[in-house]
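Fold this sequence, please.
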Amino acid sequence: MSDYVQSLGKLFLVLAALFAVIGGALLLSPRLPWLGKLPGDIFIQKKNVTFYFPLATGILLSIILTFLFWLFGRK
């Protein structure tokens, strides 16, 4: 039972850290006006419809997160 409780405690700490990082990113996002407006992001606006797909931004964030997980995941 104590292994289960310790695992649950670690999970909660990881989730809390993840929420803190996401919250910090949301707070800093207005200071990065280019984020979401990169060349390669798809933006189509018609009369009553707006379609936005941040393709280049998603690829950039994926590369950055992959590098960070690789860097901190090494043993």
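Helices lie at 2-28, 55-73. The longest strand covers residues 42-45.
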